[in-house]
Structure formats: C-alpha cells, structure tokens
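Allow me, if you will, to draw on your knowledge of protein folds for a short while. Thank you for your consideration; the sequence and its tokens are set out here:
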Amino acid sequence: EHIGDKDIDGYISSGATESNLMAMWIAREKLRKYIDISNIVVLKTKLTHYSVSKAANILNIEGIEDIELDKDFSMSIPVLKEKLSRLSDTGKGIIIMNTSGYNVTGSSDKFDEIDQTIESLPTKIKENIFLHLDAATLGFVSPFIDDKYKYLKYRNVSSVSLDGHKLGLIPYPCGLFMIRKGLSLNISKNVDYLGTQDQTFLGSRTGASAS
C-alpha cells in the first residue's frame, strides 16, 4: 500500500539484480505471446544498473538501446517519445527500464512523466509496452517521504524492484520484487510434487529476510 497499490503480487528476492531479471522475464513472456523475441527492445540509459544488460543477455533479448540523459541525469522524455513513436510504428514490443536513484548520481528518471507519456498513446500501442522501475536505492524509504514515490499509483508502471538491505538497513539478502496482480502468471510453472505453482526465479530460498 505504501508504494501506491496493495493488490499486488511479488516476493522477497535476493536483491535488485534478481528483481530486474524477474521483471524483464515476465515482460518478455507477456510480449512474446504476440511479438517475436527478436522484435522486443529494452530501453534504458547509460546509467542503468548493469543487471539490466545481464538480464537481456540471459533472456536472449538482443534489442537494447540507451536513451539520452537530460541535464539532471534522467532519461530524456523528448528522446523517449521519439523512440516510442518510431518503435511502435514497426510493431516492436518495448520494455522500459526506469530507475529511482541511480547508483552513480542519485538522480531518478521522471517516471511520473513517462507514465503520462505512455498513457497518451493508443491502447494498441500501450499493450506492447512494459514499464519497470528499479527503485533499489530509494524505493524502501522515499514512498514514506513523498507521495510522488508511491510508484504503483502510476497506471503504466508494471513492476518495481526495492532493496531492504540498502537504506532499509536490513541484513543481506533482502530485495523486494513487486508486480501488478496477475502478471506473474506469465512465467508461472507447475511444481507437480508440491501440488502448487512457482512464480519466482530462485524457487527455494531462505526465509530469514522475511522474519
């Protein structure tokens, strides 16, 4: 609820590297139902955490492009708009990786304006866009300080990475992966011997962080 929506899915992860991979995995599986993997593009900046490029490699997503930075070290909205227009015209699936608290600069992408940009697009194009927010650095505390950082109040933010073991001062490993209700079903796998489903990357993992 403190990040803008209480009706969500997610789990305690090993950290933002895993959480970012989860977001991109789910996005890829959602998009590939009607778009070939070769037509999926990841949009980021040169300041985006390296785990995003690592995840793209693991997921066999070859289309990955850097959007220019504004003077305040955030993703350029005008350049993003032009890129979205060009890519949507060619039927591409688009994964936008935003950041709240870049490691090097402390700056954040204007996810509120990017949400509005996506909202203004035709529905058919919006369906081909998945917006993830890597808030590993600021996300554990900022929502308590400023309502702007209630990330999931923005309709087009699909998922968020948080790290409790950064400013939350929780012992490692304590990442948090949060995603809109139902989207995790895109990677859900049956576990026959347990009679349940797994919607995580690591599967079995420690419960110490949760306690």
Summary: The longest helix spans residues 16-31. Helices lie at 16-31, 51-58, 77-89, 111-119, 123-126.
